[in-house]
Amino acid sequence: MNNRIVRFLVGALSLIVGLAMAVNYHFNELRPLNEGFQSALFMMLGLALIYKASKPAKKDNAMPAQWTDQQLAAFEAAMETIGNMIALKARDIHAERSKGAPNQALIDQLRAEQAELVVERSRLRIDDSVAVAHAIERYGPIVKASV
């Protein structure tokens, strides 16, 4: 459900609860200050949520620039290449674990390399053409040779 709709509904319900508490407080002549404070709090929170829900959504998330088809293709190729490298490391880890006497040091090294690849992939940005080209040049031949 849309976040604005949820805010509006929760705000409206909170406002209704606050009003009901205030009416109950007034007509039943309840005098504990706690009841009046709670009803006022419910009403204020309800109004705040309704106000926040009624404000238009910010448009800050618009893309800062239009990318060329070449940039998109290179970025996708780099992401895919690094993803394939991660898969190759997983394959090597599985192969080593399947051995009768697995080399734990090698498994740890492969896991560390795999973790570095995950971090490298997460840091890759479409507008960083140097890093994109570096990833393709560095890992592309390895992936190609493994197919």
Question: Features of this protein?
Answer:
single chain; 147 residues; mainly alpha; 2 domains; 5 helices; 78% helix; transmembrane; membrane; transmembrane helix
Counting H and I runs of at least 4 residues, what is the number of helices?
5
Radius of gyration: 29 Å
Low-confidence stretches: none
Mean pLDDT level: 86
SS-based class:
mainly alpha
Which percent range describes the beta-strand content?
under 5%
| Order of SSEs | HHHHH
Give the distance, in angstroms, between the N- and C-terminal Cα atoms.
Answer: 44 Å
Which percent bin holds the helix content?
over 70%
General shape: elongated
How many β-strand runs?
0
Q: How many strands, what sense, and barrel or not for the largest sheet?
A: none
- How many structural domains in the coordinates? 2
Keywords: Membrane, Transmembrane, Transmembrane helix
Transmembrane segments: 38-54
SSE diagram, text form:
Blueprint: H1 3-27, H2 33-54, H3 69-97, H4 104-123, H5 129-146
Helix pairs in contact: 1-2, 3-4, 3-5
Walk me through what this model shows.
By secondary structure, this protein is mainly alpha-helical. The protein has two domains: 3-54; 69-146. The protein is 78% helix and 0% strand. It contains five helices and no strands. It has helices spanning 3-27, 33-54, 69-97, 104-123, 129-146. Helix 1 (3-27) packs antiparallel against helix 2. The longest helix is centred in the middle third of the chain and has 29 residues, at 69-97. The radius of gyration is 29 Å and the shape is elongated. It starts with a helix and ends with a helix. The mean pLDDT is 86.
